[in-house]
Amino acid sequence: MIELPENLPFDEKVKIFNEITQELYDWMGVNHPSLNVQLVKADNVKGNDYNPNKVAPPEMNLLKLSMLKDGLTMPIVVSAEKENGKWIVVDGFHRTTVVQHHKEINESLHGYLPVSKLYKKIQDRVASTVRHNMARGSHQVELSAKLVVFLKKHNWTDARIGKEIGMDADEVLRLKQITGLAEAFKNKEFSKSWE
Fold first, then answer.
1. Alpha-carbon distances, residue 59 vs 63, 64, 66 (angstroms)
2. Which residue in 55, 72, 96, 179 is a FRET match for 40, CA 20 to 30 A apart?
3. Helix, strand, coil shares, percent, the chain, to 5
4. 10 Å Cβ neighbour count for 77?
């Protein structure tokens, strides 16, 4: 058993916790981010600007209640590299929002968030976000279509997009068509022949 001093300021406890979990993760040699939970200041975590997942107010209230009754049961998945001084959420946007804005929950975590970090480029993080959302069954079609276009702009093939975010070829094609039609007809004037 490791002997740890009891009367340390919380920030010092966080530092020790993070060092120990990192050492254990490195020692285990298993490449699964959930085995390396680190505590970071909640204010240093920012939602991404591409998440197509929305939560209705009743479900958001249920999430708050769940966090009050059960605690935060899963870490937030964030980018491993900070952008403008903040870690960017890959999965857990709504849990992050609750911790940042709900006083009682924030205080129960001493202003920290447990996070798992993903070492991936932006386009791979977008695909990860889509996979996390789709695995839960809640995802908006229009924003999914925009994400497909985003991945195409990063030279991903339709086959790779389908494989990475769990869509068949027809779904990828339909989503490309949704945004492609909108793009093709934006800024176009139409005849008023029906008048």
1. 6, 9, 10
2. 55
3. 55, 10, 35
4. 21
Q: Was domain 10-139 assigned CATH 3.40.30.10?
A: no
Domain boundaries, the chain: 10-139, 140-186
DSSP string, 118-157: E---HHHHHHHHHHHHHHHT---HHHHHHHHHHHHHTT--
Q: Name the band, by pLDDT with cuts 50, 70 and 90, for residue 68.
A: very high
Q: Would you state the pLDDT for residue 54?
A: 75
Closest to 126 (Cα-Cα) out of 86, 84, 90 = 90
How many Å apart are CA 30 and CA 136, to the nearest integer? 25
**pTM: predicted TM-score of the whole model, two decimal places:** 0.69
- Tokens standing for 159? 């086959």
Q: Which helix H or strand E contains 39, and what residues bound it? A: strand 38-41
- Confidence (pLDDT) at 195: 54
pLDDT higher at 174 or 23: 23
Nearby residues of 100 by Cβ (< 8 Å), 6 or more positions away: 42, 43, 45, 106
